[in-house]
Amino acid sequence: MNLVYDYFLPCLYAFLACTSYTLVFNIHGREQLVCGFGGAIGWFIYLLLNETIFAAFTAGAAICVFSEIMARIIRCPATGSLLVALLPLVPGGGIYYAMSYCMAGDIQKFLQTLLHTLGIAAALAAGVMLVFTMLRTIDAIKRLRRSA
């Protein structure tokens, strides 16, 4: 029963949040489901790896791979689904709590929370950039081999 509350429901909420947020980005049709599944996959990986900075890196990389694969399957840009699928992982709560500790004068908790939040944000960006760069390099090598 804990699996339902610990993994299934949070992933369902991430799916619903991402599919709802597609309206802001003017994403329609099948791409809405792609965004939702990308958000659910990313959140599942993040929860499975115990919500660490490495978990954020891995989840960001997985979302990028999923978005790129689905973009090629349904022939749409990967950027929209990537941005929407990353939204549940953005550490907004960490920024809020860091500023709350700063305003309360608790410098130790402020710095600890801020560094963890910045680490998660940097790990998400690094995971996406790593996968994006690798896929573009592979595409460039394929094009060079075809033209030679």
Low-pLDDT segments, ≥5 res: none
Helix run count: 6
Overall strand count: 0
Going by helix content, strand content and strand pairing, the class is mainly alpha
Which descriptors would you attach to this protein?
globular; 148 residues; 84% helix; mainly alpha; 6 helices
Q: How would you describe this structure to a colleague?
A:
The protein has 148 residues and is an all-alpha fold. 84% of the residues lie in helices and 0% in strands. The chain has 6 helices and no strands. Helix 1 runs antiparallel to helix 2, helix 3 packs antiparallel against helix 4 (78-86) and helix 3 runs parallel beside helix 6. The longest helix has 41 residues, at 107-147. It is globular, with a radius of gyration of 17 Å. 29% of the residues are buried.
Layout of strands and helices, then pairs:
Layout: H1 2-21, H2 30-48, H3 53-74, H4 78-86, H5 92-104, H6 107-147
Helix pairs in contact: 1-2, 2-3, 2-4, 3-4, 3-6, 5-6
